Amino acid sequence: MGVAGAAGIGWGAAGPRERESDDALDVVPFYGTHQAGIETTPPAHVAFAGFDLAPGVGREDVIGLLRIWTDDAARLTQGIPALADTEPELAARPARLTVTVGFGPELFTATGLTARRPGWLRQLPSFPVDRLEPAYTGADLVLQVCAQEATTVAHAVRVLSKHVKSLVTPRWVQRGFRDAPRGRTMRNLMGQVDGTVTIAPGTADFDRLVWDDGASTPWLSGGSSMVLRRIAMDLDSWDELDADGRELTVGRKVTTGAPLTGTAEDDEPDLTAVDRNGIPVIPPSSHVARARHTHDGERFLRRGFNYDEAPAPGQLSNSGLLFVAYQRDVDAQFLPVQQRLAEFDALNEWTTPIGSAVFVIPPGVPAAGHYLGQQLFEN
């Protein structure tokens, strides 16, 4: 095949009709009080990569790993190739890349820092709806890699992984995506508006409910926590449910995402409203009713990413949601809501949690010369 033929299948130079996307060269600052990727506007693409420490890896090894990740992330997020980057051209499109690092419960044991582990940092209790698979559950370390372009995410995950391969073994990589016009809420693969009720970045509520103030755990000031749940969707049986059934199950209108008692997506659901026969307009078993916080302290930042992967033989789909919750205190904020959903949520008939992990998110890196997690290891 000649040069012209090769270019026709994508190996040639960029043609005149190819353009940079609006976000291709945009960068998100790496250094700061908080790690980027939480308060940042949600991206189109994400990869969560979970790792376990290799046998014999201890405190100094983990510090070395974090120094490597800090240097790599500080470069890649600004569109600069990492040191020893074998594909430096792929770093030229940062596309609002963010890299967020988290620590699992057992990292504190391996590094001799169990006394500094937050009290809420442990795997979630077993819920009756769970069918957890080891391939998507737990990990000693997590990377959350986000960007507007999938190639940028893939390159960053590979660079960050291979540079520490002597210290960790990969446990899982979970990739997701979300599509929505700017300023609009995404839809999940059930067709529902997903993520309406959350906390607005840049507000006092966000600072109070998402970022830790260091009162009980001084080294964590400016940090947070992450709960990652992989939720499989039975789309084949969901297809058999009509629009009315779907709306009663979720408690929101399919077309607009508005609660069944309202007209706009952001309207507050009225869980006390009844129809002329005295039947609740929003069923008590609906997802909206069960997920509703009972007091202000149960609020947290919610974020979802769709996943759609190759189905097993004989199946039509392998799809679902990567649900992420960020909050100061998992026990006080996330756990009560999850317990209510596990006990009695109409949506449970079509959704099954198959993965679960909890991580502490250390504060950001204040400036060059510091490293991720330094507050834990040196303060």
Task: Label this structure with key terms.
single chain, 379 residues, alpha+beta, four-stranded antiparallel beta sheet, 10 helices, disordered N terminus
What does this structure look like?
- By secondary structure, the chain is α+β, with helices and mostly antiparallel strands.
- It has one domain (22-378).
- Helices cover 22% and strands 19% of the residues.
- The strands form two sheets. Strands 2-3-1-4 form a four-stranded antiparallel β-sheet.
- It starts with a helix and ends with a helix.
- Mean pLDDT is 93; it is low at 1-20.
Task: Name the strands of the widest sheet in spatial order.
Answer: 2-3-1-4
Enumerate how many helices there are, as a single number: 10
Order of helices and strands: HEHEHEHEHEHHHEEHEH
| Helical coverage, percent range | 10-25%
Q: What can be said about the biggest beta sheet? A: 4 strands, antiparallel
Class by alpha and beta content: alpha+beta
* Percent of residues in beta strands: 15-25%
First-residue to last-residue Cα separation: 61 Å
Q: Overall 3D geometry?
A: globular
Question: Uncertain segments of ≥5 residues (pLDDT<50)?
Answer: 1-20
Q: How many separate domains?
A: 1
- Rounded to an integer in angstroms, the radius of gyration calculated over CA atoms is 22 Å
pLDDT averaged over residues: 93
Count every beta strand, where a strand is a DSSP E run of 2 or more residues: 8
GO molecular function: heme binding; metal ion binding; peroxidase activity
Pfam families: Dyp_perox_C, Dyp_perox_N
Family: Belongs to the DyP-type peroxidase family.
Keywords: Heme, Iron, Metal-binding, Oxidoreductase, Peroxidase, Signal
